[in-house]
Amino acid sequence: MQLDKILSISGRPGLFEMEVQTRSGITAISLIDDKRISSPVSRQISFLSEIQVYCIGKEVPLNEIFNRILKHESGSIAEVSPKASNVDLKSYFFEIIEDYDEERVYPSDIKKIIQWYNLLVTKNIIALEISKSNTKKSDNTSRK
């Protein structure tokens, strides 16, 4: 899962794929509507590969959270709506990661993670990795 060029820009909905970095900011393409935007450096720009979720005693990279959701959902979009109640969002997130810090991870954070996950799955940026094990039967015939 490559999230190195996927970013979130404060004040703009959705996620973006970075196209070019300039002295004054970045040029990116929206994953929602494929429109090209430019954003100044003054806006907070966060790469998904650098975001971590608070857990008890540690921080877990967002990439790992997405992998856990992918496994939980068998590669499809999340079963819970990002617009669900706070109780439903928290219980769903608890199914994904049991030791997340409930005092530091807010329902709005969970909502955003689920929205991002659904967008990334819809755009086929992240997908469940299916390991194909090709087992070959070898005929071991011994000659005497």
Write the layout of secondary structure elements.
Elements: E1 6-9, E2 16-21, E3 25-30, E4 36-40, E5 45-47, E6 52-55, E7 58-61, H1 62-73, H2 86-96, H3 107-122
Helix pairs in contact: 2-3
Throw out a few tags for this protein.
two-stranded antiparallel ribbon; 144 residues; Arc Repressor Mutant, subunit A; 2 domains; five-stranded antiparallel beta sheet; globular; 22% strand; alpha+beta; 27% helix
CATH topology of the largest domain: Arc Repressor Mutant, subunit A
- Percent range of helical residues: 25-40%
Mean pLDDT across the residues is: 88
Tally of individual domains: 2
Question: How is this structure best described in words?
Answer:
- With 144 residues, this protein is of the alpha+beta class.
- The protein has two domains: 6-47; 51-122, Arc Repressor Mutant, subunit A (Orthogonal Bundle), CATH 1.10.10.
- Helices cover 27% and strands 22% of the residues.
- The chain has helices at residues 62-73, 86-96, 107-122, and strands at 6-9, 16-21, 25-30, 36-40, 45-47, 52-55, 58-61.
- Strands 4-3-2-1-5 form a five-stranded antiparallel sheet, with no helix packed on it. The chain has a two-stranded antiparallel sheet with strand order 6-7.
- A hairpin with a 3-residue loop joins β2 and β3.
- α2 crosses α3 (107-122).
- The N and C termini lie far apart (52 Å).
- Mean pLDDT is 88; it is low at 131-144.
